[in-house]
Amino acid sequence: MSLGMVFALIGAVLSTALAGIGSAWGVGVAGQAAAGVVSEDPDQFAKVLILQLLPGTQGIYGLLVTFITLSNIGILGGSPITDTNTGLMYLFACLPIAIVGLVSAFHQGKTSVASIGIVAKKPDQFGKAMLFPAMVETYAILALLISILSITNIH
Prior knowledge:
The protein is mostly helical. It has one domain (3-152): lithium bound rotor ring of v- atpase (Four Helix Bundle (Hemerythrin (Met), subunit A)). It is 83% helix and 0% strand. The chain has five helices and no strands. The chain has helices spanning 3-40, 45-53, 57-72, 84-121, 126-152.
């Protein structure tokens, strides 16, 4: 296995692992808050579940970047890479979603907890409450876009 392939695989692993860690943390803390609300008012289950799930998207984005990378470097298709510089390009192309996915899911989880608190006190304000964690999602989407554009343009 070439050093380039090793670098590319490290990038693929980081995109899934870091974004997944952030999502697991975010969904976990939001789930704790959601469980508290549902224990007091079971009718709010659907609303708080949606808010809990929002930080989970970063893990999905990281996994998507990993699949695209693996498809391009010869693991799931394409031609195997042998050049070290190409491998480094894949590694760096994976970093936006890896790093931003980790950080944004962490903060989106905290924001979801606050929004779950809004729903607990004022269930009719669900639409407004959902906007707060959705704003954090914007940066994960931008990082996903940068990673995908970078990976698909490596030659």
